Amino acid sequence: MSQSTEHIENTRTVIKPPNPRFKNWKIVYRKLKKNKSAMVGGFLILFLIIVAIIGPYFTPYAPSTQDILNKLQSPSADHWLGTDNFGRDIFSRIIHGTHLTLIVGFFSVLLGGAAGVLIGITAGYYGGRIDSILMRLMDILLAFPSILLALAIVTVLGGSLQNVIIAVAISSVPVFARIVRGSTLSVKKLEYIDAMRALGASDARIIFKHIFPNITSPIIVQATLNIATAILSASGLSFLGLGAQPPQPEWGAMLSDGRNFLYNAPHVALFPGLAIVLVVLAFNMLGDGLRDAFDPKTKE
Amino acid sequence: MFKFIIRRIIQTIPVLIGVSILVFSMMHLVPGDPAQIMAGESAPKEQVENIRERLGLNDPLPVQYFNYVKDAVQGDLGNSMRSGRDVTTEIGARFWVTLELAIYSTVLAVFVGLIVGVISATKRYSFADTSLMIIALFGLSMPNFWLGLMLIQWFAIGIDLPSWVPFINDTSWFKPSGWGSFAQVVLPVVTLGTASAAIIARMTRSSMLDVIDQDYIRTARAKGVKERVVIYRHALKNALIPVVTVVGLQFGGLLGGAVLTESVFAVNGMGKLIIDSIRARDFPVVQGTILVVALLFIFVNLAVDITYRYLNKRIDLD
C-alpha cells in the first residue's frame, strides 16, 4: 500500500462515527455495574463455573466412594455437610454435581434458544402464512405446562440427563420464539430495513446482519432467566427419577434420595436443595439486572 | 365483545387438534414397539399381540388417530394397562384433587402476592420493600419439591421447642401426606403457591410503580384525594390488568407444578397418577392425563384472555 492510500485509510478510521451498538453495550455495562444484586449474581455464577471446573480436583472424597459404616452422619469436621445413606460425602457430591447442573442449564437454553430464535425471526420477518403456521405450532407447545411437556418428552425418549436437556430445551422453544417474533416485528418496521431491501440485500443478510444484532437484548435477558427455570425443571425431573441416573451426583436426584431420611437425617435433603437455590438465585439476580440494564427507561 | 369471544374460541380449535395429535403420537414416538414395552420385555408373543389388538395398533396411523379423537370426544380415553379400568375413571376423582390443590394455591398466591406487591410499591426503596423483594426472589428460586420436603421437616415431623416457650412443645402441626383435612392441605398448598406468590408480588409491584408515576395519580393527589383512596381506587385497579394475565399463566404452571408437589406429599391427584403411570409404562393413562391437563390449561388461558379484554377494552388482541 502506498503512503498516500495509507494516509487516506487512517483518516477514514479517524472520522468513522462510533458504532451505536457498541455505545449501547457500554451503557448497559455501566448500568449493570451499578446494580449490586446483578453483580452478586454475576460473581456467584462465575464462582460456580470455577467450582464446576476445578472443584472436583480438590474435594476431600470421591463422589461415589461408599462408607456404609459412616452412613447418614450429621455435618462434622470430617464430612462438612454430612454423609448420605451410602456413607458418601455430601459436600464432595455437591461439588462434583455442579458441572452437571450448569451443563443442563446452559445446553438446554442454548438448544431451545437457538431453535426458538430461528423460528421467531422467520415468523416475524416473513409474516403471512409462515408466521401463522409457526406460531400456531408454538401455541400447541404452549398449551402444555412446561414441566408437563418436558415430562412427556422424557417419557418418550427415556430417562437420562441427555434426554432431560432435550426435553427442557423443547419446552423452552415457544417462549423464545414468541419474544423474538415480537422484537423482529418491531425492528422490521424501521426505515433502514426498507433501505437495505431497496439496496437489494438478501433476506438472509437482512435477518442475520441487521435484524438479529438489534434484538439480542431480549434474547440475552430471556436466556439468563431461562437457565434458572431450566435448572429447576431438570432437577425436578431428576427428583422424579426421570433424569440423572444413580450414582450420578445430580442435585435433584440427591434430594430425592434424601426424602426417605427426613426423620433422622434431614441434612441429606437440605444441602443439595440449598445448592439448587443458590444457582437459580444467581441466574435470576443477573437476569433481573440485565433486564433493567437493557431497558432504556431505567436511568444510568 | 361477543364477536371477540367467538373468534377467540375458534382460534383454540387448531390448538386443540394439535394437542390431540401430539398426545396421540406420544405412544408411537417411543423407540421400539409400544405393545412390547407395555407388556414387558419377556412377555410371550400372544400377550403382546393381544395388547396390540386391544389398542388398535394394527390399524393405519390416521385410522388410529381418528378413533382416538372420536373416543376421546365421547369421554373414552382407553383403558389402563395396569388396572384395566377406564382411564376416565382413573382420572375422575383425582382431577378434582389436583384442581382443588391448584385453586387453593392460586388463591393463596394471589392474596399474598397482591399484599406484598402493594406494600413494596407504596414503600418503594424502604427496608420493607427491599426485604420483601429479597424474600420474593428466594421464593421464585426455590425448587418446590425441596420446599415441600423442608416444610415436612419443620412443620410435620416438627422441631422440638425449648422449654421456655409456653403452651407448645414442638412444631408438628400438619400432616406430611394425604389430602382432605385442613392439616393435610396446608403444606402442599403453601409448597405449590410460594413461587406463584413471589411472581405475582413482583408483577404487582412493578405494575403499581408504572401506574403511580402517571399523571392522573399525581392529579388525584394534587386534588387532595386521600392516599389510601389513591392507592386502592385509582392505582391498584389499573395496575391489576397485567397481573390478571400473570395469574392465568400461573394457574397453568401450578397444574404442572402439582406433579412434583403431589409426589412429595403423596397426594393422590393427577400429577401423582402421571408419575406412577410413567413408571409402570401405562401409556393410555399418561396420555389421557396429559390431555386432560392440557385441555384445562387451554380453557383457563381462554378465560384469562376474555377477562383481560373485558378489563381493558382499549387493548386490541388481534
TrEMBL record, chain A:
Coiled-coil ranges per UniProt: none
Superkingdom in the source lineage: Bacteria
Any single biological process term in GO: transmembrane transport
Keywords associated with the record: Cell membrane, Membrane, Transmembrane, Transmembrane helix, Transport
InterPro entries hit by this protein: ABC_transport_permease, BP-dependent_transpt_permease, MetI-like, MetI-like_sf, OppC_N
Membrane-spanning intervals of the chain: 38-58, 102-128, 140-158, 164-180, 219-241, 261-283
Cellular compartments per GO CC: plasma membrane
Domain called ABC transmembrane type-1: residue spans: 98-287
Family the entry assigns: Belongs to the binding-protein-dependent transport system permease family. OppBC subfamily.
Protein name: Peptide/nickel transport system permease protein
Organism in which the protein naturally occurs: Oceanobacillus polygoni
TrEMBL record, chain B:
One GO cellular component term: plasma membrane
Topology in membrane: Multi-pass membrane protein
Keywords: Cell membrane, Membrane, Transmembrane, Transmembrane helix, Transport
Membrane-crossing residue ranges in chain numbering: 12-30, 101-122, 134-159, 179-201, 239-265, 285-304
InterPro entries for the chain: BPD_transp_1_N, MetI-like, MetI-like_sf
BP term (GO), one: transmembrane transport
Gene3D superfamilies in the cross-refs: MetI-like (1.10.3720.10)
UniProt main location, coarse: membrane
Annotated localization: Cell membrane
UniProt domain ABC transmembrane type-1: residue ranges: 95-308
Keyword Cell cycle on entry: no
Pfam family, one: BPD_transp_1
The keyword Acetylation is annotated on this UniProt entry: no
Family: Belongs to the binding-protein-dependent transport system permease family.
Protein name: Peptide/nickel transport system permease protein
Species this protein is from: Oceanobacillus polygoni
